[in-house]
Amino acid sequence: MRLLVVEDEEDLVEALRVGLVRAGYAVDVAADALTAHEKLQVNSYDLVLLDLNLPGGDGFQLCRAVRATGDGVRIIMVTARDRLDDRVRGLDEGADDYLVKPFAFPELLARVRALLRRDTGGTSVLEVGTLRIDTARMEVSLDGRALALTPKEYGVLHYLMTRPGYVVSSEELLEHVWDEHADPFTNTVRVTVGNLRRKLQADGLIETVISRGYRLREPA
Fold this sequence. Notes:
Elements: E1 2-6, H1 10-22, E2 26-30, H2 33-42, E3 47-50, E4 53-54, E5 57-58, H3 59-68, E6 74-79, H4 84-93, E7 97-100, H5 105-116, E8 125-128, E9 131-134, E10 139-142, E11 145-147, H6 151-161, E12 167-168, H7 170-177, H8 188-200, E13 206-209, E14 213-216
Parallel strand pairs: 1-2, 1-3, 3-6, 6-7
Antiparallel strand pairs: 4-5, 8-9, 9-10, 10-11, 12-14, 13-14
Helix pairs in contact: 2-3, 6-8
């Protein structure tokens, strides 16, 4: 899944970026409200980590602007502002969650996972036939056999498993599994899918639909 970190503290941004990438997420960053707004207009994000005190505006305004567009992206406000009225206002402006600094990174990850689970029926375990992903532990197995996947292979498989039976284009996978530095003209999606197929060792499980994309086949 692809996340946007909106934060102007450089050390915190880097720590969040590194930790989230290690946890399997694609991460873009924005250090001010204007840059964040521009990226939200151009890219499709699954979740935003949003500070409130930003150059060029505040997180409340940005959250309100995002919600006015009808964008259903998940938003967690991450801020040092711990007053009750700030928490209430943040949730009223459209944030899905509110986390006060300083925080423990494992708690942040748990909150991210909890919000993203809303798109998968609230469960941390996805199963399609005998293919299984435990998103809390980042563990993948097929027929009870554990699979060792790279972060991008895991991301592609996770995205396909949230849409079994549906055709997902290479562009959509690139948008949600890779960050903004990915070359849209590269063959990285095709290569990653090819490597994933070899590790699955299951012919036809990930089907190529000519000129359209890829589909994870549901069991008959």
